[in-house]
Specification:
Layout lengths: L2 E3 L2 H9 L7 E8 L19 H14 L6 E5 L7 E5 L9 E5 L5 H14 L9 E7 L9 E8 L5 H8 L4 H9 L12 H32 L18 E9 H11 L3 H19 L10 E7 L13 E7 L7 H18 L8 H5 L4 H13 L1 H4 L2 E5 L8 E2 L2 E9 L8 E8 L2 E9 L6 H21 L1
Helix pairs in contact: 1-11, 7-8, 7-13, 8-9, 8-13
């Protein structure tokens, strides 16, 4: 794979970026020291490497072995306005993997704070668009906890693809890749009849896609709010700074609520977000908004069991978050009803299906129309809420078990808050990314998530 054109949606993300709104995804993973019974993977980093140095070399070696991370974006002559992924011949992984030693104190709090600062910085566009940071404590003997921050440009991957790429650093994935054998691909015989049917099917599919794009465009216009009035903190001007908050929710609690009321675990989590926003507003002494804020809820367009492929393949739903409703059970019912309606329409319809519309635009439109499209996001939604699936098996790096992993989503223009969730080890880890000046009390919002789920659990299960 020496060169590959960026898909339309990837190109859109590439041109949406600005200095104040970097368009990279992130994840902050916390690891515990390796158990005494597990030998350190020193051989992968050289026999003389110790502590953070050993981990840094291990991390760099595994990142360098992932082909996608050796590619950068370059302009092309055709199509006009397009760009392509090109393999970097003189790739140097040391320009992407860095070591940060934190002062003594609360390691988790310090790592979270430095991760927020690192998330502010755009990736260098002339290089493969990703970075990894190894965060260790003042004692760099390799005996304490550590963290890894991963930054991937959204043009490189959507949530599911980012997981597939990032998972390559873990022992279980790296070991499987080292011993894995690819099966030869079977190419069916070509025939003129088959080709004719394929051409006809392709043309029919393109007509259907264009029809859906027209419908999405009309839905976007109808759904746009030319006088958006939501939560003041969510509509504040951008400062270019970032603050990161984290919360841990019990997956067993989420599932108990789901079993009691029906629906999905994601419905419960979305209702938890709505209730947490309401609690947060109360703590700020803010009046309820004139209209409930809208969440953009991404949904994957990748089919189960299909190859992960490259590029972004997702759509989204628009969901009113019922913060004005004082009853937690009623909020959950409202979320369930709205999400059922979204799912009945499908991910390729409605105003949230912006990715479908983006796929139909020519490269030149993305190059020159991205600033306008990015500025219009505020008229359509107030906050991004996404759920990123992770492998269910236990993961480790150099024999050190992964304990927590917090996904992080980028902030679009006009947005002050993005909420991303992932499930691992029987817990739901919530990563909240906010504009640092617009949302200085992000920790209070993180606490509100736990409080809201506890109340939902009491009302629906034990009440």
């Amino acid at each position: 794979m020496s060169s590959e054109l960026l898909a339309p949606l990837d190109l859109a993300f590439w041109h949406l970026e600005s200095a104040g709104h970097p368009m990279h995804l992130g994840a902050l993973a916390f690891f515990a020291p390796a158990p005494a019974s597990v030998p350190a993977a020193a051989s992968a980093a050289g026999p003389g490497a110790r502590g953070g140095g050993r981990l840094l070399e291990l991390l760099a070696g595994r990142a360098a072995a992932i082909p996608r991370l050796r590619m950068r974006v370059r302009d092309v002559l055709l199509p006009v306005g397009g760009a392509a992924w090109a393999m970097v011949k003189d790739f140097d992984v040391r320009r992407h993997v860095h070591h940060v030693r934190l002062p003594g104190g609360d390691f988790a709090a310090e790592a979270t704070a430095i991760a927020a600062e690192l998330m502010e910085r755009p990736l260098e566009r002339g290089l493969p668009p990703w970075e990894m940071y190894l965060l260790t404590g003042a004692d760099d003997a390799g005996e304490g906890p550590f963290a890894v921050l991963v930054k991937l440009h959204h043009a490189l991957a959507d949530g599911m693809r980012a997981v597939a790429i990032g998972a390559g650093i873990f022992d279980q994935i790296a070991d499987a890749r080292a011993v894995g054998v690819r099966r030869p691909r079977t190419v069916p015989p070509r025939s003129w009849t088959g080709d004719a049917w394929q051409v006809a099917g392709f043309a029919r599919a393109r007509i259907e896609e264009l029809g859906r794009a027209v419908g999405v465009g009309a839905s976007v216009v109808r759904a746009s709010r030319f006088d958006p009035r939501g939560l003041p903190a969510l509509s504040a001007g951008s400062s270019g700074t970032r603050r990161l908050g984290t919360a841990v929710l019990g997956l067993a609690d989420v599932q108990q609520v789901r079993r009691a009321v029906g629906g999905t675990a994601n419905d419960v989590l979305l209702a938890t977000v709505a209730g947490a926003l309401r609690r947060w507003m109360g703590a700020r002494d803010e009046r309820l908004p004139a209209a409930d804020p809208r969440a953009l809820v991404p949904v994957s367009r990748r089919r189960p069991g299909s190859p992960s492929g490259s590029g972004n393949k997702f759509s989204a739903y628009l969901l009113p978050l019922p913060v004005s409703d004082p009853d937690p059970r009623s909020r959950l019912d409202a979320v369930r009803t709205a999400m059922d309606r979204n799912k009945a329409a499908g991910p390729s319809r409605g105003a949230g299906a912006l990715a479908v519309l983006a796929d139909q635009l020519p490269p030149l439109a993305h190059r020159f129309g991205a600033p306008l499209a990015g500025g219009a996001a505020r008229m359509l939604f107030d906050v991004l809420v996404t759920n990123v699936p992770l492998p269910r098996s236990a993961l480790s790096l150099g024999g050190c078990p992964l304990r927590e992993v917090y996904p992080m989503a980028p902030l679009a223009r006009g947005q002050s808050l993005a909420i991303a969730m992932s499930t691992y080890g029987g817990q739901v880890h919530v990563g909240l990314v906010a504009d640092g000046k617009a949302v200085p009390d992000l920790d209070r919002l993180a606490e509100s998530l736990s409080e809201e789920l506890e109340e939902l659990l009491g009302i629906t299960v034990t009440g």
